[in-house]
Structures are given as C-alpha cells and as structure tokens.
Amino acid sequence: MAVHSDELLQITVAAAEDKKAVNVVALNLKEVSLVADYFVICSGNSDTQVQAIATEIRKQADKSGTRVRGIEGMDSARWVLIDLGDVIVHVFHREEREYYNIERLWSDAKVVEFA
C-alpha cells in the first residue's frame, strides 16, 4: 500500500530527527514544481552523521513500504540525495549546505511547519 506524501514527509522528518539532524527544513513544492511534493533538507556535522541520517531515512521508508528510487552521494557523505518519489531528501554535510544554500534556490516554496 502506497504511503501518502504527507505521511511520508512525517516519517522522513522523524527519521532525520532521530539521528540528530541539524536544521531540518521541509519545503512544500506542490504549487511550485512537478518534481516532487516535498523537499526535506537537513544536515549533519560529520560524514558519519550524514551517512547515519541517510541510512535511517532509507530504513524507515522501506519499513513504510515506500520504494527508494535512488540514493546518490553515500560514499562521499557531503550531499546525499534520497529520491522517495513524492518526497526528495537532501542530507548535507554542514559546510556543503551553507555553500549550496538550496533553500534559497527554492524560495518560492512554502516552509512546512511541524507541531
């Protein structure tokens, strides 16, 4: 059974927070792009933490029955991209996130508030 994108967003954010991801931000792309419904952007303070965050997100997506369409960047752990279909996750090393500033590139998207 397919998980709705809103539920997948919650699963993804919880998995990132479980591994102490820094500055977790979700952008609602529904009215901005056809690429995905949401981008989740977060960072880790070390290569090991970036890999741990990405691994946990993948594990929780698998557990929910969501097919992971692709993962890029696990070896270098500077910017890991996880394609979950309706939710695309960017796990950055802190320094890379500051450099690429992906939130600025998607500034038309609304930031999702979490309770």
Written description of the protein model:
With 115 residues, the protein is α+β, with helices and mostly antiparallel strands. The protein has a single domain, classed as Beta Polymerase, domain 2. It has 4 helices and 6 strands. A 6-stranded mixed sheet has the order 3-4-5-2-1-6. It is globular and about 30 Å long. The termini are far apart. The mean pLDDT is 92.
Quick structural summary:
This protein is α+β, with helices and mostly antiparallel strands and 115 residues long. The chain has four helices and six strands; from the N terminus they run αββαβββααβ.
CATH class, anyone? Alpha Beta
Average pLDDT figure: 92
Proportion in β-strands: 25-35%
Shape: globular
Category by helix and strand content: alpha+beta
Question: What is the β-strand count?
Answer: 6
Structure annotation, total helices: 4
Major β-sheet profile: 6 strands, mixed
Strand order of the largest sheet: 3-4-5-2-1-6
CATH architecture type: 2-Layer Sandwich
Number of domains: 1
CATH superfamily: Beta Polymerase, domain 2
Radius of gyration: 13 Å
Q: End-to-end span in angstroms?
A: 26 Å
Helix percentage range? 25-40%
Uncertain parts:
none
CATH fold category name: Beta Polymerase, domain 2
SSE run = HEEHEEEHHE
